[in-house]
Amino acid sequence: MHSFDWDDLQAFLAVVRAGRLTVAARKLGVDHSTLSRRIVALERAIGQTLFDRRANGYALTVEGERLVPDAEAMENLAVRIGARQDDPAQGLTGSVRIGTPEAWGTYFLAAQLQALAQRHPELEVELVANPRMFSLSRREADIAISMTRPEQGRLIARRLNDYSLGVYASADYLARHGPLTQRQQLQGQRWVGYIEDLMWSPELDYLAEISPAIRPQVRISNVISQVQAVKAGVGMGVLPCFLARREPGLIRVLPQEIALSRCYWLVTHADARDLLRVQVVADFIVDRLAALGEEFWGAGPAEVPPATA
């Protein structure tokens, strides 16, 4: 193997994670032809073909797969070295990407970013509010908000807060289907729920907790759209109370009998523990959430042991 440029290795990881040369080039802020030259230079230096160039993107070869863990190990070392150069007295710079569930990111975190910008005007924040899991080891995010505590990987988890969910329907739906006073009546109703194979977390399987006999007739991949469907009278649905209470057209059904609960976790990678900007943003999220009060979010944040490797 000949010597190679560290920039070429960064280019390799960017293409691995994006899957397409043009997308990776945008993320790196370079021209796609420049990125292509870096990949070719790395392949020449290593003496191996790392990607199969296909019409729909770049696919790793066997040799490319073998290089990924070593490249990520070098990247992690570079991150730790760079973290030592952070100087709080000079203000935070750089970028922090936060991956969150869509409702949490949209209805909580997005509104808090102004306060973060006032404290650290040079800091760049990327909020990815999508219904999915985020891989911190693959640098899909620096901070992830999850509905489950990770059990594998070099990850550090902090329990943020518990929150309640309930069964909701619109006034129009209840007027058409009569008053619902018993749990047994729920089985004969029309339901809005998740698409099973698109549930990004097992914690989203709410309806099974109410009754195994309930099957949603309308399935939607994200909770924000579910709220609008339930509000329009399409059917009943299980919704987070912090989200449903923002919609005056929704009515909670059987609140004394049916009360589900879930929690959110803030997750960072162990390699980022010394990265000041990640620490500061994580602490900011914890502090802002605690400041909102238990009447909105439930229990406050609490430290828990890190996930085991």
UniProtKB/TrEMBL annotation:
Pfam families tied to this protein: HTH_1, LysR_substrate
UniProt keyword annotation of Signal present: no
InterPro entries with a match to the protein in the record: LTTR, LysR_HTH_N, LysR_subst-bd, WH-like_DNA-bd_sf, WH_DNA-bd_sf
GO molecular function: DNA binding; DNA-binding transcription factor activity
Ranges for domain HTH lysR-type: 4-61
UniProt KW keywords: DNA-binding, Transcription, Transcription regulation
The family this protein is said to belong to: Belongs to the LysR transcriptional regulatory family.
Protein name, per record: LysR family transcriptional regulator
Biological source species: Herbaspirillum frisingense GSF30
